[in-house]
Amino acid sequence: MHDNAVFSHKVLPYFLIAPQLIITLVFFIWPAGQALYQSFLIEDAFGFSVEFVWFENFIYLLEDPEYWNSVRVTFVFSALVALVGMILALLLAAMADRVVKGAGAYKTLLIWPYAVAPVVAAVLWWLMFNPSMGVLPFWMDLFGYDWNHYVNSGEAMTVVVIASAWKQISYNFLFFLAGLQAIPRSLIEAAAIDGASPFKRFWQIVFPLLSPTAFFLLVVNIVYAFFETFGVIHATTLGGPGSSTKTLVYKVYEDGFVGLDLGGSAAQSVILMIIVITLTVVQFRYVEKKVQY
Amino acid sequence: MATVSLKNINKTYANGHQAIENLNLDITDGEMLVLVGPSGCGKSTSLRMVAGLETISGGDLYIDDVRVNNLEPSERDIAMVFQNYALYPHMSVYQNMAYGLKNRKVPKDEIQKKVEKAAEILEITNLLHNKPGQLSGGQRQRVAMGRAIVRNPKVFLFDEPLSNLDAKLRVQMRIEIKRLQQEFATTAIYVTHDQVEAMTLADRLVVMNEGNVEQVGPPIELYEKPATQFVAGFLGSPAMNFLDASLNGNRLTLSPDVVLDLNDPNLPTGAHDLEVVLGIRPEHMEACDEAGADFTLSVDMIEPLGADTLLYGYFPGTDTLITSEQPGKQQFKRGHRLALRIDRERCHLFDKATGKRLGS
To answer: Can you tell me the ipTM of this complex?
Structure first.
């Protein structure tokens, strides 16, 4: 007699996990392997000659100031998207948490943007910020400000950050609101009796209790800003003006599909892959452990 | 050292629900006042209004003759112990207890002295550097108490502080709270739905029902002379038996066979077929021989509790289930016919229409 049920089948377990396995192999391992292999090659644009060059693509990349500019742009962009998205979401969540009447309606409205596809969101903001027909530049013009994100790199960055963060606010809002509602009211009341001002109550009681949520969102937002904002950038600034909004992902696309430098583009994807893996490890490792209490 | 006065306090919620109607209470210095009642009776709301966590819709609240209606909770110099303890989970026990003092800008060395002293009194010195998550229910309760006493406030407010503890710990902490409150001689308001807790802790007891005060007084007085049928039914365990009856002068008719002559000069004179309710506690019906008995109870259910045995059965000729408490040493069987005599001195009569007490 066995304590547990034991299945003698050898094939069945593999059969059962096959769908997941096949999807991972076909859509992740295979392309990743392909990219890794390709990053060691230099090909001409028409595929007539292929040369195996080991790490030459990587060395070239790391010596290229354009690449380092893209790294800098990505970090600034991600930090801004994460900060703007999280701060506004926290503010909205704190307010929605206090609303008594019509709370459901507010929440629904605030969650909607998340259902909008990134490209659609980008087109929306592209129209609103369009220097020749957009409503926002029109208003700014009334105040004497001449908006043109096609020439001003700071303004271009502002547009892509706003368009990217706008979508993410909904997601962050949901998590922050859930986090806020999980904090017992009596804790805040106890702090009020203990003489803490509303400001102190928020920063000394509420915020530390939200810190696990905030850390989780920070990682998720950075991953989002790194890898899921291609559509936004492609629809608004095309990475310009100059290279001022050319993030790492956008550069992969441009070098590979526009510039047809397949080897260099593949090398960049490999570096991005390493970044994703690192971020995932950080998330798994610390999201659960790095809790404030 | 403080007195608390509630004068015509009202609480009406935005949806029009009136939680408290004209509440008047005077709490003297050093007194432990217990608010007790079923859920939704307004006891917690009243306490939260004293704390300043709930706005006061009407009336005046005084602490030490200062009107505090519009003061922030922190300005009222009160300390509150919550049902779920409300300890800050990310702070150590020490930080939890020190938080209120720190916000009041008390010097660091003084905070340390006060926290250490409070910890010593509550025997939690060895826990000062733990986080609340590492403590047991009883220990958390002590920390919550500690947070209240370090500040040496004018008034302690307790909002069902023992409901989350298991039965044994509850009894232990009940005694502890009583001891601490007497030691500090601090005015305290204590809210509970547990009548045993209420009876044992209170200097004075307030029984509330549906936003109104039913009766105020020392626990024993409320137990012996409940002013309304509600108070009579709420206090005492097992609960008081109620029997419909009609009153003619001093003559109480419970059923055609059971008629009692009461010797109460304070009963309304000239009562004629007045519909009343007789309240009699299970322990106030004595087993006796058939000759001296008022009625015979056919025992339907038996609950032996050790010291006492509870017997349940229908009052003859009615469908009212009544309880009788008998000494535990006797053995009873289902179907046993028990001759009982109602103690005339311990009868409580209530007007059936108003629920108010009749006679003395």
So the answer is: 0.81
